[in-house]
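Researcher: Please translate sequence to structure tokens.
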Amino acid sequence: MISILVLFSGVQATQATTAIGPRAGFNSNQDDLYMGFQMELTARFGEFSLVPSFDFGPGTDAPSVANADFRIYLIPLPETGIKFYGGAGPSMMLSGDMELGLSLTLGLNIPMKNTRRYNVEYRWGLGDIPDHKVGVSVMFGL
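Model: Translation complete:
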């Protein structure tokens, strides 16, 4: 029990700084690529950060999806700067009919020099949005 408290006591120290950057990945099948951008706002909701993002596909039939995730940093790996995170929030698909859903996210935040970092994430879509997404973003601190 004590080890769990010690592990999660580092959560506040690992809160993110405000950052913005491009992202890319693929949806449920590997032929359905997407590109977009993501912004991570400094945590203002207790331990949660607000992370809006927008993704669009290069094809005419590819869905465009807007997300508004609430992210929490779960487990920092000691002495590496790498942090696992989880998130959830509403998503809206804007291609064709407007569809609403919820996305659940599990990711890895990998630091670079200065305030830059990589985010590698896997998203599950619930409702009428893409079921699975795997993506990478490069974030630049503001």
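Researcher: Any highlights?
Model: The chain is about 5% helix and 55% strand.
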